[in-house]
């Protein structure tokens, strides 16, 4: 191995270790929250696309955990920000951690991927840009990825919270 390869491998391992540490800090924080709220849930940690991913799942069904998701994921978004702040407090580094509760984000990701693929097909067939409704940063990212996978370009326009995706034909 060359020196550059060794250095890149070490940097990758350091990043993985840092992300695993973020996941552990987040899991501890969320376990405390579940205890306070007297809710049952198991914490699952992973590293996906260069970010820590933490999920709260329940064997007793998702009904109790729906309180932590809220309407349209609003409570989930707030809990994700609080969890990121808890990680930042411990590490001193800004976290891009993703939180999922009761599979809400996973289901939303599948729905948004389908929306992005359909918008890409509409833009390709119609030859006109397709403008979607305003979305959160997470939602826009999933749509952008789906459009890219379909072979087209997209961009975000507008100001938060009214920022939206525009799918551009070739």
Characterise the protein shown here:
This protein has 170 residues and is α+β, with helices and mostly antiparallel strands. It folds into 2 domains: 3-102, GMP Synthetase, Chain A, domain 3 (2-Layer Sandwich); 107-168, Ribosomal Protein S8, Chain: A, domain 1. It is built from 5 helices and 6 strands; from the N terminus they run H-E-E-H-H-E-H-E-H-E-E. Helix 1 (3-37) crosses helix 3 and helix 4 packs across helix 5 (137-149). The longest helix has 35 residues, at 3-37. Residues 1-6 have low confidence and may be disordered.
How do you describe this structure in short?
The protein is an alpha+beta fold and 170 residues long. Helices cover 55% and strands 18% of the residues.
Characteristic key phrases:
5 helices, Ribosomal Protein S8, Chain: A, domain 1, 3-stranded antiparallel beta sheet, alpha+beta, 3-stranded mixed beta sheet, 170 residues, 18% strand
What are the SSEs and their pairings?
Elements (H helix, E strand, L loop, with lengths): L2 H35 L4 E7 L2 E7 L8 H4 L4 H18 L6 E4 L2 H23 L3 E2 L5 H13 L3 E5 L6 E5 L2
Parallel strand pairs: 2-3
Antiparallel strand pairs: 1-2, 4-6, 5-6
Helix pairs in contact: 1-3, 4-5
How much helix, percentage-wise, in residues?
40-55%
Secondary structure tally: strands: 6
Tell me the CATH superfamily of the largest domain.
K homology (KH) domain
CATH architect. name of the largest domain: 2-Layer Sandwich
Average pLDDT across residues?
91
How are strands sequenced across the largest beta sheet? Answer: 1-2-3
- The CATH topology of the largest domain turns out to be GMP Synthetase, Chain A, domain 3
Sheet/helix structural class:
alpha+beta
Q: Sketch the topology as an H/E string, one letter per element.
A: HEEHHEHEHEE
* Overall morphology: globular
The major pleated sheet works out as:
3 strands, mixed
Rg of Cα set = 19 Å
């Amino acid at each position: 191995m060359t020196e550059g390869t060794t250095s890149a491998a070490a940097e990758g391992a350091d990043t993985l270790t840092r992300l695993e540490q973020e996941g552990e800090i987040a899991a501890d924080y969320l376990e405390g929250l579940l205890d306070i709220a007297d809710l049952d849930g198991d914490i699952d940690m992973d590293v996906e696309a260069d970010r820590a991913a933490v999920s709260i799942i329940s064997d007793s069904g998702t009904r109790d955990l729906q309180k932590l998701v809220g309407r349209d994921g609003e409570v989930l978004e707030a809990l994700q920000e609080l969890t990121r702040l808890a990680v930042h407090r411990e590490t001193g580094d800004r976290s891009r951690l993703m939180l999922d509760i009761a599979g809400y984000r996973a289901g939303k990701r599948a729905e948004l991927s389908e929306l992005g693929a359909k918008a890409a097909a509409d833009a390709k067939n119609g030859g006109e840009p397709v403008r979607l409704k305003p979305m959160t940063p997470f939602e826009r990212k999933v749509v952008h990825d789906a459009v890219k996978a379909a072979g087209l370009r997209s961009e975000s326009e507008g100001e938060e919270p009214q920022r939206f995706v525009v799918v551009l034909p070739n």
